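Give me the fold.
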Amino acid sequence: MINVDLIKWNSDGLVPVIVQEVDGRVLMLAYANREALEKTIATGWMHYWSRSRQKLWRKGETSGHTQHLISLHLDCDQDVVLARVEQTGPACHTGAPTCFGDLAPDVVQELWRVFADRARTPKADSYVNLLLSDERRLRQKIGEEGVEVALAQSNEELVRESADLVFHLCVLLFARGLQWSEVLAELARRRR
């Protein structure tokens, strides 16, 4: 944990707090005063200072979307705090998993770009186009890949087969006009 006496507070007695899920996703930015950080350290639950309401608040006190503290870190200039947390439910007041929109891993975003390109300009030898043109075949492939995941013996085989399953699932989501972030949001919603 950090020593709050080392923090260089701004002129309002606040410090920005970057909040990061333990999986590495940046969830939000908030501000804390000394009391908020001391309560966070004492209770293990994230507390902040609301600049608009001018009061202390505990994340999730009304929504239930709490942040369990894992660790606090002070940056090299001692004027920004990094809070690593376990988030329950979405972090953003809008219901999004993060306050920064869709933060799906870059590889997933790249898949969606490829899918969109193939949908706009089909290619005769494209596996993605083959899957996009036949949802029945795509669903069958997802079933086959699911069985292969279940039967995988080694860790390496499990990783390979899981990647195949996720790829085909992503194609189906894209074909239905859905985003990977919707799956992540549903998983976050279930963590309550």
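The chain has two domains: 4-87, 106-190.
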